[in-house]
Design a protein that fits this description.
heterotetramer; A mainly alpha; B mainly alpha; C mainly alpha; D alpha/beta; B: mainly alpha; 3 helices; D: alpha/beta; Rossmann fold; 5-stranded parallel sheet; 5 helices; 5 strands
């Protein structure tokens, strides 16, 4: 257990220190939220309707941004060999790294979403829903992302390929996240049904992610 | 407070705006102070260990090149 | 005392150490006076009522955001063309301060807009340009942080800063083209500001106060940056000393 | 990749893997470490913990030093000591390990400021900080100066004297590696 705590502390330190990319995803998210109105137009009613979609897709893309470095950085400096060799089960190591990644990337995105939502004139009651659905959804995005990161760890330009591999797996999360949010705004469907499915998706990916990623890492080191 | 009543019905926004400004600029000033102190502490720690700054190998030679400060 | 005199870091450190306290005092004085005039003396706007008082921090903040980026651009020329040793220090110190002022301009602009337009954020031309400027600041800071060795990063970030600076008028024009919702720029109208003197004077005093505050913060941040580089140089020496001494 | 390769090393001895570049010395090391899957053949550490795979009872020093530039020297070592042993590493032990490889007074410096040789020594410090019976070294003397090599030989000597095993892939004659397994390229 102390080994995993040490790993968690190291991952957080690496993300926060000079070279780390902790807030990079939030800046990218802000850029996505800023660019879309230039395309769609400044009309606040249009923006209010597609606001939740812009926020969710922005978070999904921002989350993908730095995740390919999750294992590649360790692979390049030789840490991955030692991690795979260590008594700590690889699945737990992957889960801890993903959790640290979620804390430094997923969580800041979730906290920034309501603020950016105001820029898109999203109604206030929906801001709460967006924050809640993202809080439930970003773990799924992160853990599915780790599978992609593990699959492309030895590839030179893995980042782009990673997005193509895992975005299809993230579509259910996107669908239920947005439907839960729009349920609050327009609302024929109740908020709770899609939200609980979203939570279920997250829990499922909490298990599938580390298993698949660990297998992929062992395979790629072979 | 007489000023608050004179701010009219949108007083909240005005107070919020000034508050945000004081907090943001105040935080920046505090950060500059903290950063300065941290650098001085690191500098003293290194100097106490007797490493002189006039590095002939140091990368930023131009920054230190014509420096008269005599290290201990 | 020409710019070249300041080229020497230690002389800069000793001069700035003497100037900074006075700057802080002046800034507090002018800002105090400006705030008093802005909040108490100046009249309410016949349309907006009291919310116009937000202008007295929004406009100076926006100007400072622009001013800081201009300073960064000039410093970048100093880095690339004159290879002035303190140019990168000045640019790197100015970026977070400029970003903070731009952020303040955005938030106060949003707070000012809410009662007038009923929405927290309106994609009007000037606010959106300030938002793009804020993004460019974040880009500069992120690129600076990506380099460990300040000397190498300096030239590369200077190029980004200049490219950004050249694009500011283009962005401004195209954003205005994209949207002309915002009220006509009262202060920058060719035929002079349409504001009554009773409002203009406090605004100019606040502008002066904020500028002095900026210079005080900028010099302090530059001192930090010089110290940071000395620490870094000594750490390298420490590593080399251990190697050569064969410890 | 390999066939017909078999060897055994008693406690307190070192085996040197020799052979031209690309013959697979590093791969054989990685295979023993369990990083590479073995199609056939057995790998057994007589006297080691029975159910624990060999990789978890071995140190592997590859070409890369497994160091993070933004962490300090002692943070890097502290992490690996805790991660590989599962126990919180005491600062004295870490400092002792750093002294053993001669970079004791660089403890608080960020690792990015270390030279290649110093980084190599920091990687070696890992071996001194965590006790493991089997050491697998892949060209350990690369990037080490004369003094560094002296410290390396001292470390390995101490390890061997208390019954440790060392398998080392090298191009250079190493005083401690007497028995040699020469690998030839496949015809």
């Amino acid at each position: 257990m102390t080994a995993l705590k040490a790993l968690f502390a190291r991952e957080l330190a690496l993300a926060v220190r000079i070279g780390g990319g902790a807030l990079m995803a939030v800046v990218f998210f802000l850029i996505v939220v800023t660019v879309i109105p230039f395309g769609v137009g400044p009309d606040l009613n249009v923006l209010a309707r597609i606001g939740p979609a812009i926020l969710w897709i922005g978070v999904l893309l921002a989350n993908l941004l730095a995740i390919d470095r999750l294992f590649q950085a360790d692979q390049e400096d030789g840490s991955l060999d030692l991690i795979v060799m260590s008594p700590v089960p690889l699945e737990m190591t992957v889960a801890v790294k993903a959790l640290a990644y979620w804390m430094t990337t997923g969580l800041p995105l979730t906290l920034a979403a309501p603020l950016f939502g105001m820029m898109l004139n999203v109604p206030p009651q929906a801001l709460g829903a967006i924050c809640l659905t993202l809080l439930a959804g970003t773990p799924a995005l992160t853990f599915i992302g780790t599978i992609g990161a593990a699959l492309t760890v030895v590839l030179r330009r893995g980042g782009l390929l990673l997005a193509i591999l895992v975005v299809p797996l993230m579509i259910p999360v996107l669908i239920f996240g947005i439907s839960a949010t729009t349920a609050v705004i327009t609302g024929p469907t109740p908020f709770l049904t899609p939200f609980l499915i979203l939570v279920a998706l997250s829990l499922f990916s909490l298990v599938l992610g580390p298993l698949a990623a660990a297998a992929a890492l062992r395979a790629s080191l072979d | 407070m007489e000023i608050l009543s004179s701010l009219g019905d949108h007083a909240g926004f005005i107070v919020a705006a000034y508050l945000v400004t004081f907090v943001a600029i105040g935080a920046l000033i505090v950060w500059i102070r903290i950063d300065g102190a941290a650098q001085k502490r690191a500098l003293d720690a290194l100097q106490r260990r007797g490493f002189r700054r006039r590095a002939d190998i140091g990368v930023d030679v131009d920054i230190d090149a014509d420096d008269e400060e005599t290290a201990p | 005392m020409g710019l070249t005199d300041l080229a020497n870091p230690t002389r800069f450190m000793s001069y700035s150490a003497r100037i900074i306290p006075w700057l802080w005092a002046l800034a507090v004085l002018v800002l105090g006076f400006g705030l008093y005039m802005a909040l108490v003396v100046s009249p309410e706007d016949y349309q907006q009522g009291a919310t116009v008082r937000i202008m007295y921090i929004h406009v100076p903040a926006a100007y400072m955001g622009m001013g800081a980026y201009t300073l960064i651009a000039i410093s970048s020329i100093g880095t690339l063309v004159w290879r002035h040793p303190l140019a990168d220090v000045s640019a790197r110190a100015a970026a977070p301060i400029g970003a903070a002022f731009t952020f303040v301009a955005l938030v106060t602009g949003s707070l000012w807009g809410k009662p007038m337009w009923g929405a927290w954020w309106v994609w009007d031309a000037r606010l959106t340009s300030v938002l793009v400027l804020f993004l460019m600041y974040l880009g500069l800071i992120a690129l600076w942080r990506a380099f460990d060795d300040p000397a190498r990063g300096a030239r590369i970030v200077a190029i980004l800063a200049l490219v950004g600076f050249v694009n500011i008028p283009i962005i401004k024009y195209s954003v205005e083209w994209w949207n002309t919702l915002h009220q006509p720029a009262s202060l920058m109208r060719r035929d002079g500001p349409s504001m009554p003197p009773s409002m203009l004077v406090p605004l100019l005093v606040m502008l002066a106060g904020v500028s002095v505050l900026f210079v005080a913060m900028h010099l302090s941040a530059m001192r930090n940056e010089v110290l940071r580089r000395r620490v870094r140089a000594m750490q390298i020496t420490a590593a080399r000393a251990a190697a050569t001494a064969g410890a | 990749m390999f066939h017909g390769v078999s060897f055994s090393v008693e406690g307190g001895h070192a085996l040197a893997l020799r052979g031209p570049n690309g013959v697979g010395k590093s791969s054989l090391l990685r295979l023993i470490a369990g990083l590479v899957r073995m199609d056939a053949g057995t790998l057994e550490l007589a006297g080691g913990a029975p159910d624990v795979p060999l990789g978890e009872q071995a140190h592997y020093l590859g070409h890369l030093d497994a160091l993070k530039p933004s962490l300090s020297v002692i943070e890097n070592l502290g992490f690996w000591a805790t991660f590989l042993s599962g126990r919180e590493a005491a600062r004295e032990d870490l400092e002792a390990a750093l002294d053993a490889v001669g970079i004791g007074d660089l403890a608080s410096l960020p690792a990015r400021y270390l030279s290649a040789g110093q980084r190599r020594r920091l990687a070696l410090a890992r071996l001194a900080a965590v006790r493991r019976p089997v050491w697998m070294l892949d060209e350990p003397t690369s990037a080490l100066d004369a003094d560094g090599q002296r410290l390396l030989f001292a470390l390995v000597g101490a390890h061997l004297s208390c019954g440790g095993i060392v398998v080392v892939a090298t191009h250079v004659d190493l005083p401690f590696a007497t028995t040699v397994l020469a690998l030839e390229a496949m015809r």
